[in-house]
Specification:
5-stranded mixed β-sheet; 30% helix
């Protein structure tokens, strides 16, 4: 799909409000000689940019964040994408393990900026840009106390990238509950998913993905609302197919951090319901990929976990065990 890379609205709407809340300036610079639009894998490429901008926002408390795109001086057939911030920066020791599987930034002086996560996002993003045609992957310049700059090159001609019809990029974590290994098949023809997330943008992206996979999506914006929907579906216009074994929802996809009731508490409360309701498959979706939350989720009864950002292909793989009618 074609992307208008010189259009500020392509990138800005997700982060402008968050930057305003933190008192940060969000800037964009696009060289005059770059194409206005280009055909990249929109979902994959978007994950990388969102991850880099999210990290910049997370670790910057004052100053600015810059996203720039320019032609490569070394090879005009490539574009250089940069995300630069005036955040806390990194030491040489941190840089050495930045793209390892669990290379989370450990900085006691700034641990409150990133209390969750073990660093899988950058590792996945680096793999994605290489598949998109980058020769070196994501490169980093950083100075502790000054800021960081992440950049990568991609070919202007997207035919140089790898087809994403190959195996999806998935990070597996060991299941720890009796629910995780159960294939709770949906034996009726209902294809409903309950999406639970307090972020409108996340809901929009997930709804689009699920729609392309031919699922019907119902939304809740916190765990408490989700429980109400599960227990009183008719009040929300949700009707079963009439079969006794109808579960109403193929699965619940829930975020971790939400007001009123978070994802872990939603899992716990759902497993304490009566009858078929307590057996609905639950998948936790979160950028907070630390083992403590994942282990707690499995102990409370979740079936699976997906680390954000993820792809439509990954989502399809995770949902497949619960779609018995396919």
């Amino acid at each position: 799909r074609q992307m208008c890379i010189r259009d500020r609205s392509t990138w800005g709407h997700l982060f402008e409000i968050q930057c305003q809340h933190k008192g940060l300036q969000l800037d964009f610079e696009f060289s005059a000689d770059i194409p206005r639009c280009i055909r990249y894998d929109r979902d994959r490429f978007g994950q990388v940019i969102i991850n880099l901008l999210s990290n910049a926002l997370k670790f910057t408390t004052k100053g600015s964040i810059l996203l720039s795109v320019e032609r490569s001086l070394a090879d005009p057939g490539y574009l250089v994408f940069r995300v630069k911030d005036t955040g806390i920066g990194m030491s040489p020791e941190h840089l050495q393990r930045l793209f390892t599987e669990f290379g989370k930034l450990e900085d006691k002086a700034h641990c409150e900026l990133n209390p969750q996560g073990v660093g899988l996002g950058l590792m996945i993003s680096n793999r994605i840009v290489k598949l998109l045609g980058s020769k070196l992957g994501i490169q980093v310049n950083s100075e502790y106390g000054v800021g960081s700059e992440f950049y990568f090159e991609l070919p202007v001609d997207p035919s140089l990238s790898v087809s994403f019809k190959s195996e999806p990029i998935i990070v597996e974590l060991s299941p720890k509950s009796r629910y995780s290994s159960r294939r709770i098949l949906n034996t009726c023809n209902c294809r409903r998913i309950l999406s639970v997330d307090d972020n409108d943008y996340n809901q929009m992206i997930l709804t689009r993905m699920l729609g392309r996979l031919q699922f019907e999506v119902f939304k809740a914006f916190n765990g408490q609302e989700a429980l109400h929907i599960i227990q009183s579906p008719k009040n929300y216009g949700i009707q079963g197919c009439g079969l006794e074994e109808c579960q109403l929802f193929i699965a619940i996809l829930t975020d971790l951090h939400m007001p009123l009731m978070n994802g872990i508490d939603l899992i716990d409360n759902t497993r304490q319901l009566s009858g078929q309701l307590k057996n609905v498959p639950i998948i936790l979706l979160s950028a907070s990929d630390d083992h403590e939350h994942v282990e707690e989720g499995y102990k409370k009864g979740m079936n699976d976990f997906i680390c954000k950002p993820f792809t439509e292909a990954e989502l399809k793989v995770k949902l497949k065990p619960f779609c018995g009618s396919e």
